[in-house]
Amino acid sequence: MEKEKKLIVDGCCQEVDGERVSHRSENVTQALVKRLNKIEGQVRGVRGMIERGTYCDDVLIQIAAVQSAIDGVSKLLLENHMKTCVIDRIREGDTEVVEEFLKTINKMMR
């Protein structure tokens, strides 16, 4: 018999069996997945360039494009997080979310 999942709803954030999850809209989820699929293809392309012995500068330019695409995913996710989870939790009086958010930003900026 499958274990029943425990769901705790906390504003925009949820906890399922002790793991935090988010409730992204279908549009945001699809946009993130679409971008990540493209990035996955770019990374495979870079691997192919390495395997074929492509000139280093050309490979580095493609790696920079992958990094830029990953930054785009981060920006979209960050914007969605701010507009949903962070705002909702602040409205509920949970100011700890600000410290959590600042820690995340600091890690992203390393």
According to DSSP, the number of beta strands is 3
**Into which percent range does the helicity of residues fall?**
55-70%
Beta-strand content:
5-15%
User: Which structural class fits the helix and strand makeup?
Assistant: mainly alpha
Shape: elongated
Assembly type of the chains comes to single chain
**Helix segment tally:** 3
Distance between the termini: 45 Å
Strand order of the largest sheet: 1-2-3
Describe the main β-sheet briefly. 3 strands, antiparallel
Radius of gyration (CA) equals: 19 Å
What is the arithmetic mean of pLDDT?
A: 87
N-to-C SSE string, H for helix and E for strand: EEEHHH
Low-confidence blocks of residues = 1-11
Q: What's the layout of helices and strands?
A:
Layout: E1 7-10, E2 13-16, E3 19-21, H1 26-52, H2 56-91, H3 96-108
Antiparallel strand pairs: 1-2, 2-3
Provide an overview of this structure.
With about 110 residues, this protein is mainly alpha-helical. Helix content is about 70%, strand content about 10%. It contains three helices and three strands; from the N terminus they run E-E-E-H-H-H. It has helices at about 25-50, 55-90, 95-110, and strands at about 5-10, 15, 20. The chain has a three-stranded antiparallel β-sheet, with no helix packed on it. Helix 1 (about 25-50) runs antiparallel to helix 2 (about 55-90). The protein is elongated, with a radius of gyration of 19 Å. It starts with 6 loop residues before the first strand and ends with a helix. The model is unreliable at about 1-10 (pLDDT under 50).
